[in-house]
Amino acid sequence: MKLWVLRHGEAEPRANSDAERRLTAHGREQVLRSAAGLLGQPLQAILASPYVRAQQTAALVHEALGFAQPLQTVPWLTPESDPQQVIAELDKLGLEHVLLVSHQPLVGALVGLLEHGHYRNAAPLSTASLAELEGDWPLAGLMTLRSLNHP
Fold first, then answer.
1. What does the pLDDT read at residue 139?
2. Domain housing 98
3. What is the largest CA-CA distance in the chain?
4. Rounded mean pLDDT of 37-64?
5. Helices 25-36 and 52-65 meet at what angle, rounded to 10?
6. Angle at which helices 106-116 and 83-93 pack, to 10 degrees?
7. Into how many domains does the chain fold?
């Protein structure tokens, strides 16, 4: 299995709620630079948080890649979601090549958990950072971090 974890691009500092924060112009540029790292990859699904900035990020990637499948919004990719739940949901999907678009602290904790098997080494994902993990199963400690790119 290959799993890509993308943190949303830079977002405006304030909105009516955290979920409503939108990407800035700089954030959109960051996302497009990160999307270039996904060109030619055999993605089967793009899953995104329902928060506006993650939706905008996923839509930019979807368009840049010319991805044929519809973008999927899932409630288990919000900033405070449980990484163990994300792993369980990924296992249920049964897909081999998935892109997740989400937020800190979830993305750092998830990448660290998949790579190290615990929460002590969260991955340092800045805005629009893209992590690529590979392994036989999406289980804690059983995936290898192949790359971590910051735009």
1. 87
2. 2-149
3. 42
4. 97
5. 40
6. 70
7. 1
